[in-house]
Amino acid sequence: CNEMKKHTTFDVVYAMRYTKPTLKEVIFKYDEVVLLPLYPHYSFTTYQSSLDELKKINYNGKVFITKPFFYYEDFNKIIANKIINSIDNPNKWNLIFSAHGLPQKMIKKGDRYKQDIENHFQILKNLLPNFKSINLAYQSRFGFAKWLTPYLDKELEKFKNENVLIYPLSFMIDNSETDLELKIEYKHLANKIGIKKYKVVDSPNDDKEIAKFLVKIANE
């Protein structure tokens, strides 16, 4: 929010889905808002849940809502540059885009998350031609139901004695699932497998170019 404020004259405030400050706590200060769900891809569980929360609180002001934004060219160029700048020689690395998992039953119910993730993967793959390999996997599953595959732990097993670079595809901000899960737990697994070098690229976080991009889609 602080970085976005540098690029607009409007107030920029945040609300959280499952902790404070909640949407209800911040939105009633305004008669008109742009709601920008910080999810690049659509899912019932993420983007749609933000819209459901808006309906639930009975806000009567004027609302403009941004769409999932994974397909924007400038957004993907920022990600591609971030990935390329994280290593010296891409053709010595296997790149894995790791997206948050989702139960298969959600896809069968009509959730388009898998389609958005695969489309985003193809866009970025076309911008990054020089890696030894470019792959897609899913993380953060729990329970015994079948989730989206391939699972990241199984994908890592293919790269013994290789270098692996991970980009957290569905995350805009680093959190326990990127810092703990990817940078610690999966790094430990990579060491057990015998992966030579294992590195995780940071999420966009408060990157200046990302902040400018978010302001741009809010203005639109």
| Strand proportion | 5-15%
- Show unreliable segments: none
The proportion of residues forming helix, as a percent range, comes to: 25-40%
Number of helices: 9
Q: Report the structural category.
A: alpha/beta
Describe the strand arrangement of the main beta sheet, using strand numbers: 4-3-5-6
Q: In angstroms, what is the radius of gyration?
A: 18 Å
The count of DSSP E runs of length 2 or more, i.e. the number of strands, is 6
Give structural attributes.
15% strand, alpha/beta, 39% helix, 9 helices, globular, four-stranded parallel beta sheet, two-stranded parallel ribbon
Outline the structure in words.
The protein is an alpha/beta fold. The protein contains nine helices and six strands; from the N terminus they run H-H-E-H-E-H-E-H-H-E-H-E-H-E-H. The protein has helices at residues 2-5, 23-27, 47-56, 73-84, 104-108, 113-127, 152-156, 176-193, 208-219, and strands at 32-35, 62-65, 94-100, 133-139, 163-168, 197-200. The chain has a four-stranded parallel β-sheet with strand order 4-3-5-6, with helices on both faces. It has a two-stranded parallel sheet with strand order 1-2. Strand 5 (163-168), helix 8 (176-193) and strand 6 (197-200) form a beta-alpha-beta unit. The longest helix has 18 residues, at 176-193. The two termini are 18 Å apart. The mean pLDDT is 96.
